[in-house]
Design goal:
alpha+beta; 3 domains; 15 helices
Length: 276
């Protein structure tokens, strides 16, 4: 099936350190992008051809009806997000305007809660190249052609995938993960849901916000890592080591779209500050 996605860039979205960056297989050629990613029951293949600000998506999925596949893609890539309205609300300064111009069409994805939880526990004190290697190993060894559920990982010898100290957190969350319980956190206000997630070992402030942003699509979430801290200091004059004050700054400046602002700060900051 085919979808014309307005104001959407597939390449920018999947390259930007979101879960699909970690466990999807992708390739790029000029204005064309190919992505194949595992889901609970099989794989989904997406072929994207960029035409200006829009992207033509050709999609194939195992065990999906056309309506289910359309819903999966629209939800996964945030195609129903009012991106122009979001841009209007987060483009508060020259840095953000530059980030939007450079990465126009990059969306915040919504992945399954389990996929997102596993991905960001693996991400702790890690770089994208290593995260990707670990995640692809977990998918290949324990997924059997699909994304491995918690039962497929719990109690297994996962050290072979090189997760290091993160292995104990992965095994514990796989053992404790209850889909109904984790799904119920979606009904809670952002702060309450964050507090619930942080009760689990291996889920601190940043990981909780990543899960809330890209698993629950709570756009108030503002994950704070080294790149975000540097941008807030160098571009916004926020000279503080207080994570609480950084969250307050983001909430006051970008209100309900702090999560979108964070994604552009994070991805633009990596290239912008490296050149500075």
């Amino acid at each position: 099936m085919q979808i014309i996605a307005k104001d959407f860039n597939l390449r920018h979205t999947i390259e930007s350190g979101q879960p699909l960056t970690f466990f999807g297989d992708y390739s790029f050629s000029n204005n064309k992008t190919f992505l194949s990613y595992p889901v609970e029951y099989g794989k989904i293949n997406v072929f994207g051809e960029q035409e200006g600000k829009d992207c033509i998506l050709s999609i194939e999925g195992e065990n999906y009806s056309k309506s289910e596949l359309k819903k999966e893609i629209e939800e996964r890539f945030g195609l129903k997000d009012n991106i122009k309205y979001i841009y209007k609300n987060i483009a508060t300064d020259r840095f953000m305007e530059g980030a939007i111009k450079k990465f126009y069409g990059m969306r915040v994805t919504k992945n399954s809660i389990w996929e997102t939880t596993l991905s960001f526990i693996v991400s702790q004190f890690n770089n994208i190249k290593r995260i990707r290697r670990i995640m692809l190993c977990l998918v290949e060894r324990f997924g059997k052609g699909s994304f491995p559920g918690p039962d497929a990982i719990a109690g297994k010898e996962i050290a072979v995938c090189g997760a290091g100290f993160r292995s104990k957190y992965i095994l514990e969350i796989a053992k404790l993960y209850d889909k109904e319980l984790f799904d119920s956190y979606a009904l809670l206000p952002y702060e309450d849901a964050k507090r619930e997630l942080m009760h689990y070992k291996g889920i601190g402030d940043k990981v909780a916000d990543c899960i809330l942003l890209m698993g629950y699509k709570k756009l108030e979430a503002f994950p704070i890592d080294t790149w975000v801290k540097r941008v807030l200091t160098m571009e916004y004059g926020l000279h503080t080591k207080s994570i609480k004050k950084m969250h307050e700054f983001a909430k006051n400046r970008w209100n309900g779209f702090a999560g979108y602002a964070q994604q552009y700060i994070f991805w633009h900051g990596r290239s912008y500050l490296d050149k500075g």
